[in-house]
Automatic annotation (TrEMBL):
GO biological process, alphabetically ordered: D-methionine transmembrane transport
Family: Belongs to the binding-protein-dependent transport system permease family. CysTW subfamily.
Identification of the protein by name: D-methionine transport system permease protein
Transmembrane segments: 22-45, 57-81, 87-109, 151-173, 193-216
Domain of life: Bacteria
Lineage of origin: Bacteria, Bacillati, Bacillota, Clostridia, Halanaerobiales
UniProt topology in membrane: Multi-pass membrane protein
Major subcellular site: membrane
Start and end residues of each ABC transmembrane type-1 domain: 18-212
Keywords of this entry: Cell membrane, Membrane, Transmembrane, Transmembrane helix, Transport
Alphabetized InterPro entries for the sequence: AA_ABC_Transporter_Permease (IPR051322), MetI-like (IPR000515), MetI-like_sf (IPR035906)
Localization, UniProt: Cell membrane
Organism expressing this protein natively: Selenihalanaerobacter shriftii
Keyword Secreted part of the UniProt annotation: no
Alphabetical list of Pfam families matching this protein: BPD_transp_1 (PF00528)
Length: 223
């Protein structure tokens, strides 16, 4: 095989791996956001002296986040294999990898949302309450809009973390760039492919972080 043919073969391989990685990250991030954002909001609004104070619910939700976040991803991934099989019918492949990725990201996003909402000035919330705003109106029209720059930065961090996790699931049969790095770069001693996967991941993370910083900067009213 000529050098050009080898390069073309590598590009096809890496392009396929990149597509699988993006598929895993985008779908798992979407699922995790659907569940994680309401979880984080609920933790904040049920705190003492907040708009929907409920100590029992707050304790339960906070405990769920703390426990889930304390489990190392590699252990979580193995522990929920039966659940993964129940959901997608298999524990191998990119679609199966989405399940542990989403499960791991839900409490992470919940904590990100919680921290972002806590940065909102309490005076703004009190002003909305004094004008008769309902709890839902305060959440949707005050808390989330005011915390949007921090939320975007936090969710950007979550996406980058998922890219790292996707490399882990790829290393044990989940596909993507992690799978390519292990199968070709490590097991077959093809250092060029290993280096290329690393470069692609670094560039991908830089692009995502720069985009998140740009969006957060544009939405930051205090800037």
């Amino acid at each position: 095989m000529s050098l050009l043919e080898q390069l073309a073969s590598n590009l096809d391989l890496l392009w396929g791996g990149l597509q699988e990685t993006l598929y895993m990250v985008i779908v798992s991030m979407t699922i995790a956001s659907i569940f994680g954002m309401p979880l984080g909001v609920s933790v904040v609004v049920t705190e003492p002296d907040n708009i929907l104070e409920n100590k029992k619910i707050n304790f339960v939700l906070g405990s769920i986040i703390n426990i889930a976040r304390s489990i190392p991803f590699i252990i979580l991934m193995v522990a929920i294999i039966p659940f993964t099989r129940l959901v997608v019918g298999t524990s191998i492949g990119t679609t199966a990898a989405i399940v542990p990725l989403a499960v791991a990201a839900i409490p992470f996003i919940g904590r990100i949302v919680e921290n972002a909402l806590k940065e909102v000035d309490s005076g703004v919330i009190e002003a909305a309450e004094s004008m008769g705003a309902t709890p839902w109106e305060i959440i949707s029209k005050v808390l989330i809009p005011e915390a949007l720059p921090s939320l975007i930065l936090g969710l950007t961090l979550a996406v980058i973390s998922l890219i790292g996790y996707s490399a882990i699931v790829g290393a044990i049969g989940g596909g993507g760039l992690g799978d390519i790095a292990v199968r070709y770069g490590y097991q077959r001693f093809q250092g060029d492919i290993m280096l290329q996967t690393v470069v692609i991941l670094v560039v991908l993370v830089q692009l995502i972080q720069s985009t998140g910083n740009l969006l957060a900067g544009r939405l930051d009213k205090s800037a």
